[in-house]
Amino acid sequence: MLDIISNLFYFIIAITILIAFHEFGHFWVAKKLGIKVLRFSIGFGKPLYSRRFGADNIEFVLAAIPLGGYVKMLDERDSNVVASEVHRAFNRQHVFKRFAVVFAGPAFNFIFAIFAYWLVFVVSVTDLKPIIGEIVADSPADLAGLKKGFEIISVAGKDTPVISVAISSMLPALLDQSVINLRAKDKSGIISEYELNFNKINPDAALANYYRAVGILPWRPTGPPKVTGLVPDKPAIKAGFKVGDTIIKIGNQNIKGTRELINYISSRPEKLLDVVVKRNSVDINIKVTPARIIRDGKTYGQIGLKTSSGKYPDSMKVEYQYSALQAVPQAINKVWVNTKLMLNTFGKMLSGSVSINKISGPITIAKYAGMTASSGFSTFISFLAVVSISLGMINLFPIPILDGGHLFNYLIEMIKGSPVSENFEMVGQRVGILVLAMLMSIALYNDILGILR
């Protein structure tokens, strides 16, 4: 229950921040262009807070449903406008001004993402050294000749100070199913170049677990895994596992680490396992049958354990940061790369090479909001940046009732020299509502399916 409350709390914070920034884009540009703003609302439904400000007596509103927002401007299509203010009505503005006001919302989402990443890069971040913990057999990394214990120096000519940067630098090539070069240092200190070929990688598998798709798993502490948490209503808690148990053995196999435990259980769905755990210095036998789950067409076993093999030593940690000036191009590049990845993924969904089960809804976003917030400031800010990019990109799609739909109509107006007809707009709005309803249905279905799994 506490997890649900925490997730909901951070979800509301995240959505409120991103919506406010998006709507502020519309508001700020409208004001700069001399258009009269009547209301700035964050959320829909019943107002929870309201106040007026400025020479135009603009109403600021915080409403009950934090799933959107709007900026209401003076417009003759909504109400009668006195003659002295007709020149400030939105509908009377030149098409280029209207385009600028509408475009500003998504643009501010990208600006926010750049600022968020800039903040992350300026603040000192602790991560793991780019040392390979394990190589997945027959993976691109394995076929390239990389080995356990190698340190990744650079990817595609860019330095990789930490493992997360190293793997994320490979993502564009991974989703493009192309080739990428990297430099790595072996245990004797010799630096060599390696070519990773991703042309046989399934994009769905890449999105599900890009570490495993690349074939490089991060270094982790070794030692018998200790139970740190139990997932409600899963086999582990029903079988009698307790937080604090140390898993020693399954069957005849000694368990030396978390990854070995995961591999053993995931490969044995619906098979009775005899597990030996140490609890208060006493060995206890527990019998458990992993539930059968299907992910991306493959079957896995899962018992619902959260485990850890110990703390990461300081020797494996790296603190890195950029100066305020150095962080600017890094942040812009990060937004650019993530935008390309999202567009690439969306394109593959349209072509059918990536499943639509990758579309996430509010439940999944809330879950990740809570998870990233509990992981620290930098992780949560990075999460906000990713969601902000998504909001900006989605709003630019030419779907009627979204910003992109209005921009599409304005482009037509620029070409033909007159606004689109009211009938065209009405039909477009109906189509837009239908498309959004379908997307939301898919997203919620995926969310619920994720919970049931």
TrEMBL record:
It is found in: Membrane. It is a multi-pass membrane protein. One of its GO terms (molecular function) is metalloendopeptidase activity. GO terms for biological process: cell division; proteolysis. Residues 116-188, 210-281 form the PDZ domain. GO terms for cellular component: membrane. Its cofactor is Zn(2+). The keyword Transcription does not apply. NCBIfam families: RIP metalloprotease RseP. This is Intramembrane protease RasP/YluC, implicated in cell division based on FtsL cleavage. It comes from hydrothermal vent metagenome.
